[in-house]
Amino acid sequence: MTKVTMTVNGRQVSGEVEDRTLLVHFIRDKLGLTGTHVGCDTSQCGACVVHMDGRSIKSCSTLAVQAAGSEILTIEGLAKDGELHPVQAAFKANHGLQCGFCTPGMVMTAVDMINRYGGRLDEKTVRENLEGNICRCTGYHNIVKAILAAAAEMGAGRQAAE
Amino acid sequence: MGAEGIGARVARKEDKRFLTGKGRYTDDMVVPGMKYAVFVRSPHAHAKIRSIDASEAEKMPGVIAVLNGQQLLADGIGNLICGWMIHSKDGSPMKMGAWRPLAHETVRYVGDAVAVVIADSVGEARDAADQVVVDYEELPAVTDAVTALQPGQPQLHPEAAGNLIYDWALGTSEADTDAAIAAAAHVTEMKIVNNRLSPNPMEPRAALGIYDSAEDHYTCYTTSQNPHVARLVMSAFYNVAPENKLRVIAPDVGGGFGSKIYIYPEEIVCLWASRRTGVPVKWTSDRTEAFLTDAHGRDHVSTVKMAFDSDNRITALKVDTIANFGAYMSLFSAAVPTYLYATLLSGQYAIPAIHANVRAVYTNTAPVDAYRGAGRPEATYLLERTIETAARELGVSPAELRRKNFIRSFPYQTPVIMNYDAGDYEASLEAAMKQADWAGFATRKAEAEKRGKKRGIGMSCYIEACGIAPSAAVGSLGAGVGLWESAEVRVNAVGTIEVLTGSHSHGQGHETTFAQLVADRFGVPIDNVSIVHGDTDKVQMGMGTYGSRSGAVGMSAIVKALDKVEAKAKKIAAHLMEADESDVVIENGELKVAGTDRSVPWFQVALSAYTAHNLPAGMEPGLKEGAFYDPSNFTFPAGCYICEVEIDPETGKTEIVQFVAADDFGNIINPMIVEGQVHGGIAQGIGQALLEGVHYDPQSGQLLTASYMDYAMPRADDLPSFQVSHQNTPCPNNPLGIKGCGEAGAIGSPPALMNAITDAIGNNDLTMPATPQKVWAAVHATH
Ligand code: FES
Ligand code: FES
């Protein structure tokens, strides 16, 4: 057992973990943050995506000990003061989710994508960047729409701020 | 329509919890003292179990118990069953072999469970499961249904000689059908393979069994589309516990697509193991287990003859189908290639003679059951590939050939049981062709050719049947259950409303659409309406969600209950306003005397019902009504899908350049949600046609496609955006005029895509999935 300490959603947390404990299990089982999901065992589906130090990662293929000392953001930490993040709001407005199981990973991937591409996102780029996230319900149509809408809104927000 | 009423694109009430990580799925449940189950599964496709030695495993750290099938048998836990009886042509009942929740004598597919380890953590349970020594005597295996029917093949169950479960027929007599074919001007013959699929809801199956020894009571959290049916079956057939001692809760469920209808060994074992060990037991499938053990879909091999007269009218259709059932008969398996398949073989066409023969076959593979569409995609694929090929052989346009044969007057009785109530097939066809700019295709094809690409276009005109019913009719066809639905509408004293429904939402958005129905009726905001579902302790008996039945059947039950509530509310309001009951109308959340300014607000009526200080003489207090709704017929959604593709002859890669769906779903409550259902269905259909396929090694029976590395799920960059429209004819047989929309996309899309690809490459024999390798080979063989 090893003691790990990290910041999760702005709060410092520590816990004893086995060497083999995956970050996703640390988050779900030790911290009780069950919004991050496990949909596969081959690092393909993206249900487990969280942000580590500002970049999206698959928490099912990261060991808890690897995350020691890092800043983790999970889906539970995205909305601020009860207000949905623009990506969350766009998923709702555009019906970008059905069963909701892929949704936390999709949203965390989308936030990172928009951070990386800013206003330069188009449909093709969004679809390519969703390569690591599988959704069985929506056919991606409304997910793509939601991400483009959020990107436009966040881009506009950025411009207004400048 | 109001902003939140019927027909409005209301954003979903349930979204916030899913978007903020607050969804509550079975694997999220934690109860004090909970332990974890890992199953020991057969690595062989077919073997006898000589012995199981768990002595080492039991000594491993954290292990509470290792349980096996002998103990399960000794405790009286029953066999898993198929709940639909089919009789063969010779009148004999289907041949159902025993399916034990934990095999103790013979394993029949890779993944068959033989023992379960309960331990403090999943990791410890997994470590110990590796140490359980099972001594197997390997037997030869067969994975393919056509082969399994041949003489000399491995036999799976002593009950089913030659691996044949049933040999069933439907429709016009074979002799009359043959005579019509013999007299035809043209006959198109095809061999049609419908590839085997893995449903793959993103949430893997899970179960949490909690036994309370003080009350001798069981609670089961599980990933179910129909918790009441699960409770009924686990009580009545598996002897887990009497119904009043068993609570089944299906909380948030992450997709189902049919695969979560069935009762699997794992939930039975978790409940039983919880009693044996005295601790709550949770099992969560990993993805490989899901591929191995979730019921698969499709897997039909058929031959078809479609006969035409000299005027290109279809005169007869003859179909012979072999359906692979896997190693055991899953809960609804028997119904899929019979009453959900052969009954749809008339499609949208007037065909005077139809004969279908279906053989169901055991093989050493995972059980096969209903997957999105269940039988109807298989029927549609067979018909729509065949009529497209016929058009090519006859040298007529595929649209013209379909048009010529469309059913145009309703009701229409087919030779295969179904009585179509309403439809306008021409309207969908025209809308789709216009949307797809069918007329401009030749230009686009020529342009693509200049770029070295092969462009093709294909259509599919599907019909499906939703809301299987009425109960008496399905009972006479062999169903073990009735297919009605229930609802209870509880108006609280302050006027807020709870609707308890027997339907179950696992992505369909019932919390929103069902609330819209209520908001529309009483003029209350949807936020004042809560939908309660998925818990047998809270909700009256219900049949659950599958077969696109929640709208047509589930909402009809709600309407019936709303009618009763409305009638009582009007009586109370009339009494309060000293008016005649028949003059009372509901408008904007008030009950008014029509044509006057006298009114009482909705909440006042509710409050009056509960204070009971001033009710009409003899009226019971309270405002709560229940209803059961049993439909008088199936509903028949239909539509036309058009797909256009471009193929790179150098790589064989298919790009979908446009996909158009024109559907008739009857009346629609929330178009946004309906479109979402169509998108998802189309994606699954495209997955089937282009990417997906379950493969077993024919010798060893090993599953070769047991992860997302090997099984090609549709990803965002495999798909285009879809163009979706509706041409609705209301269903005359239910109060809302709803037909259902959950499966259409998966039914209509595979043949449209395959017709487009075969059009592009000029080869009618291509099979699904049309992988680049197959397409490349076909392109180069044609040259
Ligand atoms: S669970 Fe991490 S990619 Fe599937
Ligand atoms: S919404 Fe169900 S998997 Fe994406």
Structure description:
The complex is a heterodimer of chains A (162) and B (783). Chain A contains five helices and five strands, in the order E-E-H-E-E-E-H-H-H-H. Chain A folds into two domains: 2-76, Ubiquitin-like (UB roll) (Roll), CATH 3.10.20; 86-161, DNA polymerase, domain 1 (Orthogonal Bundle), CATH 1.10.150.120. Chain A has helices at residues 23-30, 86-93, 103-117, 123-129, 141-161; strands at residues 2-8, 11-17, 49-52, 55-58, 71-73. In chain A, a hairpin with a 2-residue loop joins strand 3 (49-52) and strand 4 (55-58). The model of chain A has no long low-confidence stretch (mean pLDDT 95). Chain A is an alpha+beta fold. With 783 residues, chain B is α+β, with helices and mostly antiparallel strands. Chain B folds into three domains: 31-139 and 202-255 and 260-293, Aldehyde Oxidoreductase, domain 3; 386-465 and 636-781, Aldehyde Oxidoreductase, domain 4 (2-Layer Sandwich); 484-629, 2-Layer Sandwich (Aldehyde Oxidoreductase, domain 4), CATH 3.30.365.10. Chain B contains 20 helices and 28 strands. At the A-B interface, helix 2, helix 3, helix 4 and helix 5 of A face helix 1 and helix 18 of B.
Secondary structure: elements and pairs:
The complex is a heterodimer of chains A (162) and B (783).
Chain A: E1 2-8, E2 11-17, H1 23-30, E3 49-52, E4 55-58, E5 71-73, H2 86-93, H3 103-117, H4 123-129, H5 141-161
Parallel strand pairs in A: 1-5
Antiparallel strand pairs in A: 1-2, 3-4, 3-5
Helix pairs in contact in A: 2-5, 3-5
Chain B: H1 15-19, E1 35-41, E2 47-53, H2 55-58, E3 63-68, H3 69-74, E4 106-107, E5 113-119, H4 122-130, E6 133-138, H5 145-148, E7 164-171, H6 174-182, E8 186-194, E9 206-212, E10 217-222, H7 227-236, E11 246-249, H8 265-277, E12 281-284, H9 287-293, E13 300-308, E14 314-326, E15 353-362, H10 376-394, H11 398-405, E16 412-413, E17 419-420, H12 425-435, H13 441-450, E18 454-463, H14 471-476, E19 485-491, E20 497-501, H15 510-522, E21 529-532, H16 549-577, E22 584-587, E23 590-593, E24 599-601, H17 602-611, E25 624-629, E26 638-648, E27 653-664, H18 671-691, E28 723-726, H19 744-761, H20 772-782
Parallel strand pairs in B: 1-12, 10-11, 14-15, 20-21, 27-28
Antiparallel strand pairs in B: 1-5, 2-4, 2-6, 3-5, 7-15, 8-13, 9-10, 9-12, 13-14, 16-17, 18-26, 19-20, 19-25, 22-23, 23-24, 26-27
The complex binds FE2/S2 (inorganic) cluster (2 copies).
